[in-house]
Design goal:
- This protein has 204 residues and is of the alpha+beta class.
- The protein has one domain (2-192): 2-Layer Sandwich (Nucleotidyltransferase, domain 5).
- The protein is 41% helix and 19% strand.
- It has helices at residues 5-13, 27-30, 61-69, 79-88, 103-111, 117-125, 133-141, 145-169; strands at 18-23, 40-47, 52-57, 74-76, 100-102, 171-176, 179-184.
- The strands form three sheets. Strands 1-2-3 form a three-stranded antiparallel β-sheet, sandwiched between helices.
- Helix 4 (79-88) links the parallel strand 4 (74-76) and strand 5.
- The chain is globular.
- The protein starts with a helix and ends in a 20-residue tail after the last strand.
- The relative contact order is 0.17.
Length: 204
């Protein structure tokens, strides 16, 4: 047991926040398919250091950056393609320098196609998303900001549960027609090789 203690204590020190964002507009509003053309409504995270779920509007991002800047691994669902390019617009450095795990990308790599968060969560956890991203845009335009935050936080919780399930079991589940199948994922490397992370060289 003692020979594993240094590794265990090291892993406890690492920061693995899980995040999701919602936007104020649609691609049809911007006339572009580039996620960076969209504007941030809020970003919600689970902070692995405090085990707390928090949310940030654009005017509050200065409170988020210290958490991001000490991150060892940034975790999301479709985050490399969608969330990070949007969030990166508001940061003075380059968030792509942070090592990340995008669960949707990992699923596509193993299965050959993408599966949405709701389908994966329902098959794996027996849970569904609390709504649809389209509604989040509508709530935002109606000034119902807390509804947007609550929806975003629910997605973060689902993503965290999926990540924890995959790490523990080495797979997620998905519906293939009428059959429920297991999809093995290569999870061993997700939290390894942290010496390559550039987080602590980001400009503060």
């Amino acid at each position: 047991m003692s020979e594993w203690r240094p590794i265990y204590e090291y892993l406890l020190m690492l920061q693995f926040p899980i995040f999701d964002i919602e936007t104020t507009n649609f691609f049809t509003d911007t006339g572009s398919n580039d996620p960076a053309s969209l504007s941030l409504a809020c970003v919600c995270i689970h902070d692995s250091e405090t085990d707390a779920y928090t949310s940030y509007f654009e005017e509050e991002l200065k409170k988020l950056w210290p958490i991001i800047e000490k991150t060892d691994l940034l975790i999301g669902f479709n985050s490399d393609h969608f969330d990070l390019p949007i969030l990166n617009k508001y940061y003075s450095g380059d968030l792509s320098s942070i090592k990340s795990v995008d669960l949707m990308k990992e699923i596509k790599k193993a299965l050959g196609r993408r599966i949405g968060l709701n389908a994966v969560a329902e098959a794996t956890l027996g849970k569904k998303k609390s709504g649809d991203g389209i509604y989040a845009n509508v709530w935002w335009r109606k000034g119902e900001r807390q509804k947007v935050v609550d929806y975003c936080l629910d997605d973060v919780r689902l993503t965290k549960e999926l990540y924890d399930f995959a790490k523990t079991n080495g797979h997620i589940k998905y519906q293939d027609g009428k059959r429920l199948r297991e999809l093995p994922l290569e999870t061993a490397h997700w939290e390894k090789d942290q010496e390559t992370v550039l987080t602590h060289t980001l400009p503060f």
